[in-house]
UniProtKB/TrEMBL annotation:
<feature type="domain" description="BLUF">
    <location>
        <begin position="1"/>
        <end position="90"/>
    </location>
</feature>
<protein>
    <submittedName>
        <fullName>BLUF domain-containing protein</fullName>
    </submittedName>
</protein>
<dbReference type="Pfam" id="PF04940">
    <property type="entry name" value="BLUF"/>
</dbReference>
<dbReference type="InterPro" id="IPR007024">
    <property type="entry name" value="BLUF_domain"/>
</dbReference>
<dbReference type="InterPro" id="IPR036046">
    <property type="entry name" value="Acylphosphatase-like_dom_sf"/>
</dbReference>
């Protein structure tokens, strides 16, 4: 079964996101994971899609990663179709106000049905990303 995980986190200290995204793209390609990262001044919103057990193991590693703190799980749900199927890890820089809007939508999504309509937080992230994906880093090829 495939699932989707959405979470927020903060970086312990400022870092260069490019090398982290390149590493994520390589690993995600290998593990069959797709998704998108939205970033603003050390805050990350990430959507991960893939096989349920692989995603859960990845999320546990993320929670234990010393580069993150305030890791906040927003949503885990089964999916029948990936929203970001062509991106091993898409990327976009967002504003503080956009981060707050996504965070608010995440809180509202906690009450939504597991199999019902697409949760609000995913609709906002997908719509924003598709409209603004000029910063997307290309998938790495081997």
């Amino acid at each position: 079964m495939e699932s989707c995980i959405v979470y927020f986190s903060r970086a312990i200290e400022p870092f260069e996101i490019g090398p982290l995204l390149a590493q994520s793209q390589r690993n995600n390609t290998r593990w069959g994971i797709t998704g998108v990262t939205l970033y603003v001044r050390g805050s990350v919103v990430q959507v991960l899609e893939g096989e349920d057990q692989v995603l859960r193991a990845l999320y546990q590693r993320i929670e234990a990663d010393p580069r993150h703190h305030q890791v906040e799980h927003i949503l885990t749900r089964p999916i029948t179709q990936r929203l970001f199927s062509t991106w091993s890890m898409g990327y976009e820089t967002i504003s503080d106000s956009q981060l707050e809007e996504i965070h608010t939508a995440g809180a509202l999504s906690e009450d939504e049905s597991t199999f019902g309509e697409e949760p609000l937080v995913l609709r906002i992230i997908r719509t924003f990303y598709e409209a603004n994906r000029h910063n997307q880093m290309p998938s790495l090829s081997y």
